[in-house]
Each structure stands twice: as structure tokens, then as C-alpha cells.
Amino acid sequence: MIKLDASSEKLYPLPIGDSSKLQVGEQISAIGNPFGLSGSMTSGIVSQLGRLLPIQGTFFSIPDVIQTDAAINPGNSGGPLLNMNAEVVDINTAIYSSDGSFSGVGFSVPSNVVLKIVPTLITEGEFQHPWVGISSANISTDLAELLNLDDAKGVLIMTVVKDSPADKAGLIGSSETAILDETEYTIGGDIILSADGKEIRQIDDLLIHLQREKNVGDAINLEILRDGKIMDIVLTLEKRPDS
């Protein structure tokens, strides 16, 4: 956060839009200082919604980011991504590149996430992200066949971090292996089917739900499949560790 020592008459804040209304294919524009070229504007479309952006040096990711093909380069980070009403709908954050330059894939943090996090940054200096404490794998068609599931959906818990919210709630990680078509799979853990009544088809769905709806200290109701039986597990979310 940056505090400016300037009169309000000299500041012209941009309106904040609702990023939940964005649609794939919608036109957007990015403003920033790519390679030091101040005030540059580029245009493109929303390429996809709800992407996961890995955080370098950690095992965590930024969920729910927007993918765009608007040209974003070093110097664009922190600049606005605007809809055609000149509303800020995202904050430009990163690019996918093998050489550090634009390759057609840029990532931006949604404005609704910014509105959730920034007030806490101003008042407390940091934002605590909610954490479950598991590693997982999406249910593929092969895993669904091994586990005798009707549909390839849900999240298989692979490991449970000791003393994490998941551990305290009694969630179980995978402890067995099985072979299908000469490929070994780890199985035996709980399968998350829904969170607070919302269907979980893959881990992205769970992380996006945590990002949008949950805070540290909140309870989350997980519907799981264990040994062929469906049950509800309620756990209390804690602060995500640094590593």
C-alpha cells in the first residue's frame, strides 16, 4: 500500500468494477509502464476465468486469477485492467513467458479479491489467507475407474498436514496404491465432493471458494466420500503458513 501526500483535487481515482461479471471473450484494456514506457495502453480480451497462479518459492497458488491476451510486460504489474466502462476489474500481476517478454498469456487479480484484501492491508498491514492443510489430486477418469466412481469429479486428499485444520477435523489422506494400465496410483484418502453445498469438481473450485467466501476463523462444511459412505466434516480455517 502506498499513501500519497497530495490534495484530493489532484487525484482522479478510477471506479472499481465487479470482476464476477466478467465473461470469456469480453474486451478489456491494460494500462501500465511496460519496459519504462509510461502510460502505455494495450487491449485484448478475457481469455479465461478462475486460473491458478503458482507463487514462486512456495507450494501455494493465487486462485481465481483472470487470464488475458492483452499485452502485459515487465512494468505492467500493479496497473489496472479495465472493462469498456473504464472500470478497474483486475490488477495486472504476472505473465507466462519463457524469456521474460509477452507471449500472449497474462494474469490479473480480480477486483473483488482486491476489495476483500486491501482494507485489511490498510488497517493491519497484512492479510491472512485461510488454509485447510491438505495436498490433493483431482479425480481423473482413471482414478474414477479405480475407485468405482460414477463420475470423474471431486478432490482426492493425498496428504494431511500435521496439526492443520484438516488434521484436527479428522480428514484422512491416501495410504494405499493401486495399478491401472501399468500406472501406479495412490488411493485410500477422503474424497471432497462439495464445500458449503457447492460442488467441488477439482481443487481449483475449493481454492476459489476459500478466496471468495472465507476468512481465517470461519467454519467450512466439507461433504466427503470415505469407504463408500458420504459424510459431512466441519473444520475451522486457520491462517496459511508462510511455507
Description:
This protein has 243 residues and is mainly beta. It folds into 2 domains: 8-124, Trypsin-like serine proteases (Thrombin, subunit H, Beta Barrel); 130-239, Pdz3 Domain (Roll). The chain contains 4 helices and 16 strands. It has a 6-stranded antiparallel beta barrel with strand order 1-2-3-6-5-4. The protein is globular and about 65 Å long. The mean pLDDT is 91.
Set down the secondary structure blueprint.
Elements: E1 27-32, E2 40-54, E3 61-68, E4 80-82, E5 88-95, E6 106-110, H1 111-124, E7 130-131, E8 134-138, H2 141-146, E9 155-160, H3 165-169, E10 176-180, E11 183-187, E12 191-195, E13 198-199, H4 203-213, E14 219-226, E15 229-236, E16 238-239
Antiparallel strand pairs: 1-2, 1-4, 2-3, 3-6, 4-5, 5-6, 7-16, 8-9, 9-12, 10-11, 12-13, 12-14, 14-15
What name goes with the CATH superfamily of the largest domain?
Trypsin-like serine proteases
Mean pLDDT: 91
| Sheet with the most strands: spatial strand order | 1-2-3-6-5-4
Structural class: mainly beta
Number of strands: 16
Short synopsis of the structure:
The chain is mainly beta and 243 residues long. The protein folds into two domains: 8-124, Thrombin, subunit H (Beta Barrel), CATH 2.40.10; 130-239, Roll (Pdz3 Domain), CATH 2.30.42.
